[in-house]
């Protein structure tokens, strides 16, 4: 009697399959240094949540990559009885890559970079939300990165992972602020994320230049970068993340980077206002 559960191999010799490697063409920046990528923002995409938003940043010309974010806000709601008393609203942020967001599949547990993004996002939102109006309450902000800017493995191999994280943080701040406004949580202003970088491309006599909304795969070397969470109406910065080494006068370069990042965030702030106004008209 034959064993029906056994899967017999082929009778003759076989050759293992050979797959061609993916051809990755290095993109080239075609935008002006002061131009940002077009993006789409919509609120109220998750009816079961108190507030929600979806942000899609268009891919750069010829790069084939873009960024997509979703955010849901749950609360404010009462804290459990076991929690200590808090005179302010407790903000809990959770940033996570979707498993399919990058070419190198992500795990279900958050890694160090995702926890770092959550801390920066919490700092940015804490300066905008009026937490005194909800004592003994908590709100949970969950941001899911549906699609990353570039292949995560490519950024790790080229050493650009930290620079790419700044662009991700800028999108997280923008989509989370829109979701909080959609939830009706009182804030002094709507925070918007912006990022600028000091880059240097290959070539003889190429000088470092300042660019807004950089895509790390489009540049040969990133010398410094700055990501801000900006309140347009109050002209205040709630979170600032600067990293890198500058050329020439350090103070002048630092101020120029912050100024370009603030300028980039103003465009995102206008998009949030337009999206919220459209949602109010449809309500």
TrEMBL record:
The keyword Cell membrane does not apply. It is found in: Cytoplasm; Nucleus. One of its GO terms (cellular component) is nuclear exosome (RNase complex). Keywords: Cytoplasm, Exosome, Nucleus, RNA-binding, rRNA processing. InterPro entries: ExoRNase_PH_dom1 (IPR001247), PNPase/RNase_PH_dom_sf (IPR027408), Ribosomal_Su5_D2-typ_SF (IPR020568), RNase_PH (IPR050080). Transmembrane segments: none annotated. It comes from the Eukaryota. One of its GO terms (molecular function) is RNA binding. GO terms for biological process: nuclear mRNA surveillance; poly(A)-dependent snoRNA 3'-end processing; rRNA catabolic process; rRNA processing; U4 snRNA 3'-end processing. Residues 36-185 form the Exoribonuclease phosphorolytic domain. Gene3D superfamilies: GHMP Kinase, N-terminal domain. PANTHER family: EXOSOME COMPLEX COMPONENT, EXOSOME COMPLEX COMPONENT MTR3. Belongs to the RNase PH family. This is 3' exoribonuclease. It comes from Metarhizium anisopliae (strain ARSEF 549).
